[in-house]
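Hi all, long-time lurker, first post. I run a small reading group and we've been trying to get comfortable going from sequence to structure in the token notation. Rather than ask abstract questions, I figured I'd post a concrete chain and ask someone more experienced to write out its structure so we can walk through it together at our next meeting. Sequence below, copied exactly:
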Amino acid sequence: MKPYHELTRRGRLSRLRIVAEKALDVYGLNNAHLSFLQYFTNIIYRVDVPGSSAATNESCIYVPNRYVLRIHATDDVESITSELTWLAALSQEAGLPVPAPVSTPVGQLLVTILTKGIPEGGSSR
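-- Answer (accepted) --
Happy to help. Here is the structure in token form:
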């Protein structure tokens, strides 16, 4: 297997998609559809859960059963957890229209996925 640092951008994305698919398994979303959105520092996918429907309320800015999955480029768990806690507080306590983090079925906001061929696995939320 070619070392990660020697891969092309396309090769890295291919391996990181495996991390994203494994993260969906952790969330119990095995049948969800991943759509690549961005690869800059972090890798971002749109996640559509079967049965998704367009938002029916025009004032609602979010689409039901649609999520964003972010694979972090950093392993700074404290910073990532702090950001997720802050987003949750802004959403729940302040009532601001920010994307709220979604916990796994066992209550984790951050998951580390160890995958062969990727240095130190990958963290996702």
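A couple of things your group might point at:
The mean pLDDT is 85.
The chain has two helices and five strands.
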